[in-house]
Amino acid sequence: MNFQDMILTLNQFWGQQDCIIAQPYDMEKGAGTMNPATFLRALGPEPWKVAYVEPSRRPADGRYGENPNRVQHYFQYQVILKPSPDNIQELYLESLRQLGIVPEDHDIRFVEDNWENPSLGAGGLGWEVWLDGMEVTQFTYFQQCGGLECRPVSGEITYGIERLCMYIQKKDSIFDINWVGDVTYGDIYHQNEIDYSTYNFEVANVEMLFNLFEMYEKEAMAVLAKGLVQPAYDYVLKCSHTFNLLDARGAISVTERTGFITRVRNMARSCAQGYVNMRGGLGFPLIKDESKRQQALQEFNEKGGQQ
Amino acid sequence: MAKYLLEIGTEEIPAHFIDKALAQMKEIVEGALSQQRIAFEEVRALGTPRRLALVISGLAEHGEDQSEEVRGPAQKAAYDAEGKPTKALMGFAASQGVSLDNLSVKELNGNAYIYASRLIKGQKTVQVLPEILSGMISALNFPKFMRWGDLDFKFARPIRWLVSLLDDEILPLTVAEVAAGRESRGHRFLSQGVFALASADEYESSLEKQYVIVDQAKRKTQVWQQIQAIAEKNQSTVEPDEELLEEVTYLLEWPTALMGNFKESYLEIPEEVVITPMREHQRYFPVRDQAGKLLNRFVTLRNGGDRRLDLVAEGNEKVLAARLSDARFFWDEDRKQPLEAYLPKLDKVVFQEKLGTVGDKVRRIEGLAAWIAGVLQAEAQVKEDTLRAAHLAKADLVTNMVFEFTELQGVMGRYYALECGERPAVAQAILEHYQPRFAGDQPAASQAGAFVAIADKLDTIAGIFALGIEPTGSQDPYALRRAAMGICQTILAQDLPLNLEDLVIQALSQYTYVLADEAAAAKVLAKIMEFFAARIRNILSDEGHRYDVVDAVMAVPFARIQQVKERAQALSSLRQHTGFQKLLAVFTRANNLAKKGEGGKINPALFAEEAEMALHAQVLATQKAIGGVKEKEGLAGVILSLSNLADPINSFFEAVMVMAEDPAVRANRLGLLQAVVDLTKDVGDLSKLQE
Lengths: 307, 691
Known about the structure:
The structure holds 2 protein chains of 2 kinds. By secondary structure, chain A is an alpha+beta fold. Chain A folds into 2 domains: 3-201, BirA Bifunctional Protein, domain 2 (2-Layer Sandwich), CATH 3.30.930.10; 205-303, Class II aaRS and biotin synthetases, domain 2 (Methane Monooxygenase Hydroxylase, Chain G, domain 1). Chain A is 46% helix and 21% strand. Chain A has 9 helices and 11 strands. In chain A, helix 6 (206-225) packs antiparallel against helix 7, helix 6 runs parallel beside helix 8 and helix 7 packs antiparallel against helix 8 (254-282). Chain A starts with a helix and ends with a helix. Chain B has 5 domains: 2-62 and 124-209, Alpha-Beta Plaits (2-Layer Sandwich); 66-120; 216-334, no CATH class; 339-542, Orthogonal Bundle (Hypothetical protein af1432); 575-688, Orthogonal Bundle (Isoleucyl-tRNA Synthetase, Domain 1), CATH 1.10.730.10. Helix content of chain B is 50%, strand content 14%. Chain B contains 24 helices and 17 strands. In chain B, a hairpin with a 2-residue loop joins strand 5 (103-108) and strand 6 (111-120). In chain B, helix 8 (271-281) packs across helix 9. The two termini of chain B are 48 Å apart. The model of chain B has no long low-confidence stretch (mean pLDDT 93). Classes of the chains: A alpha+beta, B alpha+beta. The interface between A and B is large, with 40 and 42 residues.
């Protein structure tokens, strides 16, 4: 199965489970969790099911295309099921079957791994899924997001699709993955890895990036003050990526580091609260059962929003 | 007699949660059954990653009845002049729910009272058991809890099914919106999935047919036997590793061992580097030849049968190969520059936000280690090695290898130091300065290693305490307790004549930038000494000293930890000695009286009685001799010679009225008793010792 077919298969499978098949969010981010389709939608009482491919950028992980397993840009396949259904593990295993991985032929384990993202104020408990000893998926029950308790809890499944594909295609290097026809992953992305590694580590204009961080942060808070949650969140994502670039450039000293993370977290937290208030103001329209919707609204109003 | 089964079916519970959860389940249910007086033969707790189960055998149908007697009004108040029951009596009987015929009269302290005898019926097991079980499930304590779906219920991982069977009947029970039934689930991939259990009795055998060995002890034995067998078949051995074995046992339900290989050339890198990714990251058992030499093989366990074991082996080999390839790259890369060259990077790594970087810490370790080597008048070479080791102790933290495999801190420091031509003693001290790493680990064996180990650990304690952070209960994020224990063990193991307080003062002197002034420093010093005292108490208790001995030796000041230990050993060994017992019998009285005096100078001219002159003479003789005794015979000798004071003290108390009317005479006698007490201070506060 080629890389492209894997994505199509997963889209097909999760689409059949009534997941919205979303497109990647058009902004740089370190992980699929930061897509508003996860970070914001995991908040509040409304149900939500979504699946999407997310390009993930981690400037510090670049290796100039020389390491067969490590790159600064890769893809995650992200699924959110909210509330987490009782058969979530079975669904996941079924999706592996669809990819041609017969669990009976392998050793599949759910090994404890808890996930935490301090700059998003988010964390959860779950596992990394091992396929014959290789970590291929991160499986998390969100407990907190943007500093708020998640009620209901979202189940998050994050496939490392390159890893899975390398396994399925028996390739030792990410760049040898067959994408489609005779085109490889390396054909498409290898030069990018070299160029971005060079840019991230050597070229990025540090002074400009520091300025941008300040500007983005100001804009995020100003936009949020006008109650425009997602436009504000866009600037939080920009701040986060700018911070990652500065970090890769080695421009952030140890003492400054926690300060920057706290600034991003505070913005993310404000967006999270703003989002829940906004959805409450709309009457939580995604809750289609009228009595449940009324109940959720009543709880929301009793708390006076989630301030 | 019935058999009961509870199975809590879950998603995969973390391996290290399970053993403790099972112990709690057993303890809570046994306690609750006993409280209800419901008899049972045995409660077994069984578990795998996907189920926590309880099997109660020989379970009685109901609790035993218990009769209880309740005292009512006095007989005088119970009947009126005509012998008829009074209101008080009738009220009492009604309140106890008994008829007047069931009352009796009994004497208490010479008065006659009315007693009601009441029978507390034992409750039916089927009625109380569900409550006991749901209470137990809610009471289980896991290191971490989670919620799932839209429930508020918290558990280690989501609960997906419940089996509750009393013999062959379902005993209804609902937890986390899951209603119990007889449907269990077998192995995720090998079994038919959901299957019905006919009775509690067939639990283990039915599960085994569904490819689940639910008894952890049995599973563990099988895992180990399979490992042994596969090693033997390949003319190799696997060393026992209890911790890994237990973890692996709780990671699977149906074990099948398999052996994999890796490129022989990876054996050229240090053994620890090869073993760490295998053991810590992949939970593989390393394989050795009969002579103990590491082989390019590993044993791993699959949660399943032997179908396509070749694929499973191939996959695992691939993962390990990638990790070992990284490791070799790090090994080659890290050695391109000497260890010293990594030091500037330490100034970019935070040790603690408010205490600065690891680079700052290294400079403090150097200062403190040099001070220790100086105070102990170490040889010039040891001093030099200590300084060099302190300088390089943390350099490996910023190497690629330790960044990736943090468990290898110190281990890599040693290798890299040797590679770049440092003296072997320096390399060894770098490794040893992390010791003891865990409870039961050896403290540093070399002098330089010990000095740097003490300096590193004490610097952390001093810095964190200076910030006002102290370990409380289970909260000890900087592992300060282990650090303090480590310091004590290191000092004791090498018998280093270090004054603990001086040492702490020295460590704190490097934190003037955190401590506001001398008063603040004094406060922190007191806190740290208290903290150490608690650790020393632990050490003494662990060595088997009774709590009163520990109290006695810790009640008097000490300079060195060894002193405390010697005192405890002397007291413990002589606590039963007849002479010493005699001394103890009179000591408390002497001690209490002495407190009333001012402890002034003794004036022999004021002694009137023979007994007090005799005691004085004995005190003087002991004072004079005790230094020599201590030197020759140790504290045990001191205690024995102090015991000779017992008889003169006894005679003193018999013949002399201590609290004499004449204030001068009184003060003199109290002073004499104080002199007795003072003599014992070097051993401990004897008044703390119990009979």
